[in-house]
Amino acid sequence: xxxxxxxxxxxxxxxxxxxxxxxxxxxxxxxxxxxxxxxxxxxxxxxxxxxxxxxxxxxxxxxxxxxxxxxxxxxxxxxxxxxxxxxxxxxxxxxxxxxxxxxxxxxxxxxxxxxxxxxxxxxxxxxxxxxxxxxxxxxxxxxxxxxxxxxxxxxxxxxxxxxxxxxxxxxxxxxxxxxxxxxxxxxxxxxxxxxxxxxxxxxxxxxxxxxxxxxxxxxxxxxxxxxxxxxxxxxxxxxxxxxxxxxxxxxxxxxxxxxxxxxxxxxxxxxxxxxxxxxxxxxxxxxxxxxxxxxxxxxxxxxxxxxxxxxxxxxxxxxxxxxxxxxxxxxxxxxxxxxxxxxxxxxxxxxxxxxxxxxxxxxxxxxxxxxxxxxxxxxxxxxxxxxxxxxxxxxxxxxxxxxxxxxxxxxxxxxxxxxxxxxxxxxxxxxxxxxxxxxxxxxxxxxxxxxxxxxxxxxxxxxxxxxxxxxxxxxxxxxxxxxxxxxxxxxxxxxxxxxxxxxxxxxxxxxxxxxxxxxxxxxxxxxxxxxxxxx
Length: 535
Ligand code: GTP
Ligand code: MG
Fold this sequence. Notes:
Blueprint: E1 12-19, H1 25-35, H2 43-53, H3 61-66, E2 81-85, E3 90-94, H4 100-108, E4 115-121, H5 128-139, E5 144-150, H6 159-175, E6 182-185, H7 209-214, E7 229-237, E8 244-250, E9 255-257, E10 261-265, E11 269-277, E12 286-288, E13 292-297, E14 308-311, E15 320-330, E16 342-346, E17 349-363, E18 368-370, E19 380-392, E20 404-409, E21 412-422, H8 428-440, H9 448-455, H10 472-485, H11 495-499, H12 514-530
Parallel strand pairs: 1-3, 1-4, 4-5, 5-6
Antiparallel strand pairs: 2-3, 7-8, 7-14, 8-13, 9-12, 10-11, 10-14, 11-13, 15-19, 15-21, 16-17, 16-20, 17-18, 17-19, 20-21
The structure holds guanosine-5'-triphosphate and magnesium ion.
Magnesium ion (MG) binds near residues 25 and 61.
């Protein structure tokens, strides 16, 4: 396929440059721009002249700053991104190592670097951030890594030094499960082995940095991935098409078509896709990975933002729990501590979260464990979180898209990570039963949403509890009657009414039947609520 014939999506690739401070990331990028002819005419000369006039030595890294205002040109640069093209494809280069925005964007899926160039200074060798960034890439699921051993001019282009760094860093990458694409001896400053091989390193017969980039594989969306559609919003059109509801969001993996039966988690409700809605064009028959879409359902079920739709036929459904073990990268100025409430965001869901257990804190420097009871800025840790309410997610190994989360303290994102394993929480068993019940439930033509509109109320269960003889019944009875007087649809259900009615076959005083008593009361309450009542 020729360059022109490829679609933009096919020949575009996001690459992130990382590495220890001053190891030459920006210089290598600047030089690549210059050597691939990606710079606007006269730009290089102009920057060189400016340097000369202020008697400052010229730096290729300055090109990146100098280009920031040139959005109209073939090459554009915004806060942290550089665009350039080789003969093979367009590159979007992200020069924001360790930058919170980058990590945030990677974790939330806003940006998707498919590969990374990790720059190591040949003179200084492997440093703290060379390791830390390597670890971070592995955590973010970036598997294609090119290691550029830069500043070879400072070590007289000695092969020994290159091999030394290569073997040390390979060892490290192996430990964290990364198999690097290549190691390239280079000099950003001298333009060695970037766009072309240089006579300075006659012993090096491998590919240039540019060739290594061009040989990276485009990661294709795997059509085998299960359908995952985090619900963003529910739009209701009261005046139009019998109060049609459109469920809106984006498919983050897999696909679904009209007629497919969907399961929404954590609620466990299900219904069939009736139509897929598009604005201003003919309605598509299928939602595919990456599509922002809206659809209507056969039945008006009540689902909320934050739920995840998957195919009901799917065997690998997203787990639902309040508790899971994660790998996490912390960037907060304040440490991550136990006994504090944070917000965990995953997909479109948000939940109040607390650290249940810190399993280990990995010192990025030597991958050793540390026994701290808090997680400091830049630490990488394995942590179990417990949430106030359950969410649906995936495990990193099965579908990384829905395993990435961020942790907020107030409005700020201070950390992010991936879910490694799920624990069954206290309600897991119950939840499974509820799912089966919800699926088997036989519904009439009137649905809850219509009832809510008609009764002008949200169904609710209000429990009045307390010690004996404090007046529970009196109070509950007054409340029920007051609500009724106010025009609400209500029912007062005394526990005694259940004990001597529905539950009369269960002994009353023993604790062994306690679970069953509760279960029946809960099921009864479910029916009241499903009929729109305030109980
Ligand atoms: P930060 O963005 O601050 O983390 O640094 P960086 O990794 O982008 O490094 P940068 O490209 O700014 O280079 C840092 C210094 O190293 C500059 O003074 C460069 O001139 C110098 N430098 C970069 N590459 C080379 C090289 O190949 N050889 C030599 N001798 N110096 C280099
Ligand atoms: Mg830089």
